[in-house]
UniProtKB/TrEMBL annotation:
Pfam families named in the record: DUF2322
Top-level taxon of the source organism: Bacteria
InterPro entries (alphabetical): UCP019302
Name of the protein this chain belongs to: RNA polymerase subunit sigma-32
Species the sequence originates in: Eikenella longinqua
């Protein structure tokens, strides 16, 4: 099994992003990941999901995201609330949701 760090090294650059919004069907932002210290790994992973799944965040994309989070997924399961970006992926699977990933370009 690959680690999160190994997966991260394969993801596209996020240098051009200020963050990512996760939006519901009405276009309302339900989750935000900023380009900030401590969040860059999650931002990069979600951007990779956006690229791979045409900005669609559904059960298939969320399952891929949990695989890419690797060892952090088990930690999130053991400590609910500690990893909100992983919790969101689990919620999408559990509730059979389809959301939209909206990358935010730097101004």
């Amino acid at each position: 099994m690959t680690t999160f760090a190994e997966n991260l090294a394969t993801f596209p650059s996020i240098d051009h992003l200020s963050g990512i919004d996760i939006q519901d069907a009405a276009g309302q932002t339900v989750h935000h990941i900023p380009a900030a210290p401590g969040k860059l790994g999650s931002l990069r992973l979600y951007y990779a999901l956006a690229e791979k799944f045409a900005n669609r965040l559904d059960g298939k994309a969320a399952t891929q995201g949990l695989e890419w989070f690797a060892e952090h997924t088990a930690d999130a399961e053991a400590h609910p609330g500690k990893h909100p970006n992983i919790d969101l992926l689990k919620q999408i699977i559990d509730n059979k949701q389809t959301l939209h990933i909206a990358p935010l370009k730097k101004q």
